[in-house]
Amino acid sequence: MNEYDVVIVGAGAAGLIAAGRAGELGGKVLLLEKMERAGRKLLITGKGRCNITNDAPQSEFYDHIFPNSRFLKHAFATFFSHDIIRLLEKYGLETIVERGGRVFPVSNNSADVVNALLKWVHSNHVEIRYGNRVERMIIIGGEVKGLLVNANGKDMNITCRNIILCTGGCSYPATGSTGDGYRMAKKAGHTIETPRPALVPIETEGDMAQRLQGLSLKNVKAIVWVSGKKLKEEFGEMLFTHFGLTGPIILSLSRFIVDELVKGHKVEVSVDLKPALDEVKLDNRLLRDLDENGKRKIDNLFRLWMPSTLIPVFLNELNIDGQKEGHQLQAKERKKILMMMKDLRFRVTGYRPFKEAIITAGGVITSEINAKTMESKVVKNLYFAGEMIDLDADTGGFNLQLAFSTAWLAAQSCMISH
């Protein structure tokens, strides 16, 4: 019988790393991918540039990962950001560190990352089969024995000693991430924290966002309010769309917003357009500008305070006549402007679907996985890596590093244990 030391399911970021490492350690390795090529999702990450990792120290990484970042302590100690950079450089990929510690390929082309990983995988004699869909795992007596695979409409059994599930989550289903691994893990007896979109744009009530569609704001603060209580805030860049809000700070806040919406809570996002100024300083600035430009029309004066796209929205929402002159603006109207600049508020009604989410929150719960090996505590010789695990992170290269580290540890553990 043709038996493999390890079969890895899914040739994405985690799958390629697991396959390469297992091969490097001398294993007879089979990598199965249901799509016709490897790294489909890697190709679209970072807007096609691939944000490989982040050069933040390990201690900072934990602040960007949810809900149980300490689970990764051993994985990060085994394989971290400098290791993936060194590995890629060995296979001809130069990297560069950009704003916020984000690491990208110098070529700005994610295909170069996939190609470097494939070069490494092939050099370690890994067998890759594309167009192979795993129907189910064969588990006997609580131990992995093999898999039932469908290749071009034909079912076949594959015998193996270990399985590493690297099937990804449910986001960007067109790339092959359709939650297959969660279903397999559940069937094997694992508890699955309900998968939901994370790093996902949010939908808002009314047409204010629609009227501001296309406007990008920099250096603003977004605050999440849940049932009237402040939950979380982020500073940076955001964007208005026809359905609501997106951009880096909104995506980072989205995992908390989605969770609160799922619980049925009332969620609002407040945008502070002038986070560097408190109310007193901002009021002084408005007063000074009104004093110095008293003859200018109010809609013209607003240009000193905000992007032109925001002006008609402010005038309309606050019911202020933009044709009045600055000196005619009443104190209560000035107060209203100030309050709206500090608290431009949106009621959140929902979030975009999985096909627009960068990653998936949820997955196999960490209490059922051995943090030192990534092996299942339920099924012997079954391992998990990447988005299969109930862990997700902020944008900035943290999610890919999570995938690389868990995959490396899983491959190393299953090879060393035999």
CATH architecture of the largest domain: 3-Layer(bba) Sandwich
| N-C termini distance | 18 Å
Number of domains: 2
The portion of residues forming beta strands comes to 25-35%
Kindly provide the name of the CATH class of the largest domain: Alpha Beta
- Secondary structure tally: strands: 20
Mean pLDDT: 96
The helix-and-strand class reads alpha+beta
Largest sheet: 7 strands, mixed
CATH topology of the largest domain: FAD/NAD(P)-binding domain
Unreliable stretches (pLDDT < 50, length at least 5) are none
Helix content: 25-40%
Output the radius of gyration.
Answer: 25 Å
SS element count, helices:
14
Estimate the global geometry from the Cα principal axes: elongated
CATH homologous superfamily heading of the largest domain: FAD/NAD(P)-binding domain
Task: Please tell me about this protein's structure.
- With 418 residues, this protein is of the alpha+beta class.
- The protein has 2 domains: 3-195 and 361-416, FAD/NAD(P)-binding domain (3-Layer(bba) Sandwich), CATH 3.50.50.60; 201-351, no CATH class.
- Helices cover 33% and strands 28% of the residues.
- The protein has 14 helices and 20 strands.
- It has helices at residues 13-24, 40-44, 58-61, 73-78, 81-90, 110-123, 180-187, 208-211, 248-262, 279-292, 298-301, 310-318, 331-342, 398-416, and strands at residues 3-9, 29-33, 53-54, 65-66, 95-97, 102-105, 127-130, 132-140, 143-151, 154-165, 192-198, 202-204, 216-226, 229-240, 244-246, 267-272, 344-351, 359-364, 382-384, 392-393.
- The strands form 5 sheets. Strands 1, 2, 7, 8, 9, 10 and 19 form a 7-stranded mixed beta sheet that branches. A 6-stranded antiparallel beta barrel has the order 12-15-14-13-16-17. The chain has a 3-stranded antiparallel beta sheet with strand order 3-6-5.
- Strand 1 (3-9), helix 1 (13-24) and strand 2 form a beta-alpha-beta unit.
- The radius of gyration is 25 Å and the shape is elongated.
- The model has no long low-confidence stretch (mean pLDDT 96).
